[in-house]
């Protein structure tokens, strides 16, 4: 049987999680034999038996399993509208959030326990932003596909509890392991400073990508090795009683830039407990939205205000990034303290 190969444009791609999600969803279609997605070109290459269908019809069929995740497939590249007008709302909201966060730190409500430059309160807030951003789309997709599988068998609650429980516990344990590894390596002051700058830059790039107005920023994102990410995502395909628990653990290894920036910071703590609590705070921040996704079709991507939200979130993340970079420079004495909090 003759197979055909097509390359289509994909709208809605933001990060490496999108690549993983698109390849996973389209790879499950019975008539597809090979699929390869590209974040750089916002495209997907598919090979399979499409019969006598024209490219436009194939694109429509490929969009069906992707639409719920916020992606559409087309033959021709569509001109993206950046909507700079969204900043009229995003900038004031981001500034208000920053002021509120500083006030809460001043009175000690978000600075629950100091863990160096990144407090547990900060990790929690970053978790909230991550859970709402497109970088967590792949985790939401995992939750939805897993929910559908077990719902067919009449079991809706237990799998969800296992998933969220496994995720929260594994983030604490694996975060602790990374922190302990940092202790074993005994990071020098210069190494800690370098990692601090890297964390700040990673978060800055994440923020720029959330603004969704600088296409070149997508090329700068860190990514988990593709083989590791695919194996982690593949766990959701297993049909076993412990699958929800394993999927929860696997989310620690998925290509989410927010998770990776927290993992990098955790390495600098040099402590199992501080590392574990940092990742636990981050996981707890993601919990409310992921729990909502578990029991509904909630998706910020499909909202009419998605552009405003992502630009606001991007500005907030960039503020955190700047604070971390400045704090790193203060610690090594390159600049005097600029903030008294």
Key attributes of the depicted protein:
341 residues, alpha+beta, Alpha-Beta Plaits, 2 domains, 4-stranded antiparallel sheet, 7% strand, globular
What does this structure look like?
With 341 residues, the chain is an alpha+beta fold. The protein has two domains: 71 residues, Alpha-Beta Plaits, CATH 3.30.70; 248 residues, no CATH class. The chain contains twelve helices and four strands. A four-stranded antiparallel β-sheet has the order 2-3-1-4. A hairpin with a 4-residue loop joins strand 2 and strand 3. It is globular and about 70 Å long. About 1% of the residues have low confidence.
Radius of gyration from the alpha-carbon trace, in angstroms = 21 Å
Mean pLDDT: 76
Unreliable runs: 112-116
Give a short account of the largest sheet. Answer: 4 strands, antiparallel
- Please tell me what the overall shape is: globular
Secondary structural class: alpha+beta
Count of all domains: 2
Secondary structure tally: strands: 4
How much beta, percentage-wise? Answer: 5-15%
- What series of H and E elements makes up the topology? EHEEHEHHHHHHHHHH
Assign a percent range to the helix content: 55-70%
Distance between the termini: 68 Å
H/I helix tally: 12
Strands of the largest sheet, in order across it? 2-3-1-4
């Amino acid at each position: 049987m003759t197979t055909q190969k097509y390359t289509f444009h994909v709208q809605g791609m933001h990060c490496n999680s999108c690549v993983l999600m698109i390849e996973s969803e389209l790879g499950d279609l019975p008539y597809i034999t090979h699929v390869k997605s590209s974040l750089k070109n916002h495209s997907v290459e598919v090979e399979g038996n499409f019969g006598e269908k024209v490219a436009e019809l194939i694109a429509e069929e490929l969009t069906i399993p992707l639409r719920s995740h916020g992606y559409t497939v087309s033959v021709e590249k569509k001109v993206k509208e950046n909507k700079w007008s969204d900043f009229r709302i995003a900038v004031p909201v981001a500034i208000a959030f920053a002021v509120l966060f500083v006030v809460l730190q001043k009175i000690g409500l978000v600075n629950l326990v100091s863990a160096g430059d990144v407090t547990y309160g900060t990790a929690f807030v970053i978790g909230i932003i991550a859970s709402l951003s497109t970088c967590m789309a792949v985790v939401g997709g995992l939750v939805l596909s897993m929910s559908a599988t077990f719902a067919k068998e009449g079991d809706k609650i237990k799998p969800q509890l296992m998933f969220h429980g496994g995720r929260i516990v594994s983030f604490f344990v694996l975060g602790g392991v990374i922190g302990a590894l940092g202790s074993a390596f005994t990071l020098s002051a210069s190494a800690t400073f370098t990692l601090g700058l890297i964390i700040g830059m990673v978060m800055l790039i994440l923020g720029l990508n959330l603004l969704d107005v600088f296409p070149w920023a997508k090329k700068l994102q860190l990514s988990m090795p593709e083989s590791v990410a695919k194996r982690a995502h593949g766990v959701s395909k297993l049909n076993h009683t412990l699958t929800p628990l394993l999927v929860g653990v696997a989310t620690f290894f998925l290509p989410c830039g927010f998770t990776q920036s927290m993992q990098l910071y955790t390495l600098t703590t040099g402590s199992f407990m501080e590392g574990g609590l940092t990742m636990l705070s981050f996981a707890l921040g993601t919990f409310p939205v992921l729990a909502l996704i578990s029991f509904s079709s909630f998706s910020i991507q499909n909202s009419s205000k998605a552009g405003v939200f992502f630009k606001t979130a991007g500005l907030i993340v960039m503020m955190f990034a700047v604070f971390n970079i400045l704090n790193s420079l203060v610690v090594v004495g390159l600049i005097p303290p600029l903030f008294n909090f």
